[in-house]
Amino acid sequence: MSASQRHARSGASPASGxxxxxxxxxxxxxxxxxxxxxxxxxxxxxxxxALHPIPEVGLNPQHRRYVAAETAISVVINVALSAAFAWAxxxxxxxxxxxxxxxxxxxxxxxxxxxxxxxxxxxxLLTRKRLSSGRLDGVExxxxxxxxxxxxxxxAITATLLIGGASTLLxxxxxxxxxxxxxxxxxxxxxxxxxxxxxxxxxxxxxxxERPRPEGD
Length: 217
Known about the structure:
The protein is mostly helical.
């Protein structure tokens, strides 16, 4: 039984489906999927997504290279944005408490939401432009995924609740005495990179599965 069939038959919730697809799409493209995988000259094994089940279509090597390259760009941009936001929120403070309204723990929530949203919306819009101009081939599917205006907030909210929520809850335990700004900054940068690495590939895969749009739309 394929990985997609296993997940589809498990009756898992939509949220777990998002987590499943994030990990499965990324590691599958990297060639590290724990499940069966096609050779490089063939499409990757079909997948199941909680946002839209597409059991018959995978990604070819061109798509995988595209997703990997765009993800790397997204990581660089979101690390830079994380640095800017961290400086705006906490720059100049000697010690930043983990808890409280002005603590760094709660800041993981808006950081996660904004990075997740940008990691989906911006690459999707760029991918649409390349698809409509013919510079990139899309993935043919029987039905397209949810519209961008629905799936981007859904993915951002899900990531915020799961990843941001866990980070917010764990921070006071891991740093009970707070952190200095220069100790906190690399944590925020690494965190921003991790969120971008998780969300960007999923956003791109779904963008590649959208219906073709006339150039200029």
